[in-house]
Amino acid sequence: LTVLNAGRRYLKAEDLSGKVFVTSGLGGMSGAQAKAAVIAGCVGVIAEVDEAALMKRYKQGWLMEISNNLDHCIARLRDARKNKTALSLGYHGNVVDLWERLAYELDTTGELLADLGSDQTSCHNPFSGGYYPVQLGFEEAKQLLSTNPGKFRTLVQESLRRHVAAINRLTDKGMFFWDYGNAFLLEAQRAGADVEKKGANKTEFRYPSYVQHIMG
C-alpha cells in the first residue's frame, strides 16, 4: 500500500510498471519491501549489507534475483524498466554505494533511473548495528563497532551525509523520496546532512513521512 500510494500521490500513476523503487533493508519488517515492489508491479532494488538477511529473503522467494555487482544491478534495472517487467533485485552491498551510483549515472548520462526512494535501515539505533557505514565492509564494520565505537559513530555520520547528498541529487531531478518512520531523517540531520525543509522550522524535513503523507 505504501508503494502504490506513493506512486499515486507523487507520480500521479495508478500503474507502476516501468517505475523504479530504490530502498534498503531486508531484515525484519523491511524484508517485505521486495515483495511489495513486485505486487505493485514496479522494479524494486533493495540494498542489504548482511548476506544472511539477503539470502533469507531470496530463499523465501521474496527476492527474485540477488547480486553484489553494481554494474549488473544497473543493467538489470534498465532492462526491467524498459520492458516494464516487475522485478525485486537484492543488492548485497551498502545502499550508499547504490545511491551514489545512481547519482553518477544521472550526472554522466542524464538518465534518472529511480522514480521512488526510501530507506529502512534501523536508524533508530544507528550506532549499535542498525546502520552500517559505507566506508567499510560488513565484517570490518562489525569489528570496528566492538573495538572502537567512537570511530564507528563518526563513520556512520559521515556515511549519512553522503547518503543524503546522493538522494538530494536525484530528487532535484524528479525522484520522490519519503521517510519510513525509521528515524533516518532525524539521524541524518543530527549528522549534519542537508535534510531541513527550506523556509520552515528546524523540526521539519524536506522529505515527507509515509504515515502522514502516504498512508494518511
UniProtKB/TrEMBL annotation:
One of its GO terms (molecular function) is urocanate hydratase activity. It comes from the Eukaryota. GO terms for biological process: L-histidine catabolic process. InterPro entries: Urocanase-like (IPR023637), Urocanase_central_sf (IPR038364), Urocanase_Rossmann-like (IPR035085), Urocanase_sf (IPR036190). Residues 2-214 form the Urocanase Rossmann-like domain. This is HUTU hydratase. It comes from Odontophorus gujanensis (marbled wood quail).
